[in-house]
Specification:
Elements: E1 8-10, H1 14-24, H2 30-48, E2 54-60, E3 65-71, E4 75-81, H3 85-94, E5 99-100, E6 102-107, E7 114-120, E8 129-133, E9 136-137, H4 141-152, E10 157-165, H5 167-176, E11 181-187, E12 190-191, E13 197-198, H6 204-209
Parallel strand pairs: 1-11, 4-5, 4-6, 4-8, 8-10, 9-10, 10-11
Antiparallel strand pairs: 2-3, 6-7, 12-13
Length: 212
């Protein structure tokens, strides 16, 4: 579903609404939180993969020959560490032959700006469809810097996928990366003074890995 933001696609699905509610609830355990993230990631991956190109080839069923299809686009998933790791398995269960890179960015709690501490991606990133995943699009600082890093290393076909987005983060990405489509499971109201999304779901990394 399109929104007032040209590049943001809100995936309006009853199962996503149910699982976003699970994520928001403070009493949700890390185990249940991780499972809900995976289920939402399945649906986001299905939506994004609609545009993947296919090629025909001949196969044999038990009864006769027929036409089969294979994905010809290379796909690279790049989670922003560490919270983005929670979305990777859900994507890989749908886009099974995707490769995975990693970007490590941590937010300076004083400046709210991201600081890089790790980067590793597959060699074919320049010709692949690259899906950057991070559960929260808050100020947009981490996603913006991650997209900059990927572009500097040759990525040209980029998508950003998140669970929850704030208007401030969407505006930042649309201003700095107008060619990048953003897919999300929820569009929230605003950021608080500390840069956290409201109503949000807290710190996705801490809630995924139980490090509260």
């Amino acid at each position: 579903m399109t929104t007032k933001f040209p590049n943001f696609y809100l995936i309006d699905h009853p199962l996503i609404k149910r699982d976003v509610t699970v994520l928001r609830q403070a009493e949700t355990s890390p185990e249940i939180f991780r499972e809900a993230v995976k289920r939402i990631s399945h649906i986001i991956a299905m939506e994004i993969s609609k545009d993947l190109r296919t090629a025909e080839f001949e196969i044999e069923t038990p009864l006769e020959k027929t036409t089969g299809y294979k994905i010809i686009d290379d796909v690279v998933l790049v989670p922003v560490l560490r919270a983005g790791l929670g979305m990777v398995n859900g994507f890989l269960e749908i886009i099974t032959d995707a490769k995975v890179g990693h970007i490590g960015l941590q937010r300076d709690e004083t400046t709210l700006k991201p600081v890089e501490y790790y980067y590793k991606t597959p060699k074919n990133i320049d010709s692949a469809k690259v899906i950057l995943v991070d559960p929260m699009l808050a100020t947009g600082g981490s996603a913006n810097e991650a997209l900059n890093y990927l572009k500097k290393r040759g990525a040209k076909n980029l998508i950003f996928a998140c669970l929850v987005a704030a208007p401030e983060g969407i505006k930042k990405l649309e201003a700095n990366h107008p060619e990048v489509n953003i897919f999300g499971a929820a569009l929230d109201r605003e950021l608080n003074s500390k840069g956290y999304i409201l109503p949000g779901l807290g710190d996705a990394g801490d809630r995924t890995f139980g490090t509260l």
